[in-house]
Structure prediction request, 130 residues.
Amino acid sequence: MALLSPDELKKLDNACDELSNDDKVRHVGVINELGRLVAGGFKKGKSPLIEEEKISMTYMQMQLDFKMRKELDDILGPIDYIASRRTKQLIISVPIGDNLVLISAEPDADDKKIIKRAEELFDDITITTI
Prediction:
């Protein structure tokens, strides 16, 4: 497992904050390969739609889903992003190394715009293995 340096964590937090400036975005967080939130979180003034105790389970579920989908990377190529639109929420995950940027937004949000902005913000952040 790659440990993040304080500098990397600060860059990830800053990128999360920047992406959270979109009015439709509710949550931007970076989840490590164990499914734990390491940077970002819910936008100030926004509360989760699910109970607090289910949030960590959801993070682990998203990471597991990503890992399972990676099994096809050799055949289909690497994952650029995963997006699902539900009645009450848009959920997007964008890989950054072994970590995931998990974004939740209002269901009417422009997913393409959010994904493009996430890629611009997070692609420049290099995560090294310690």
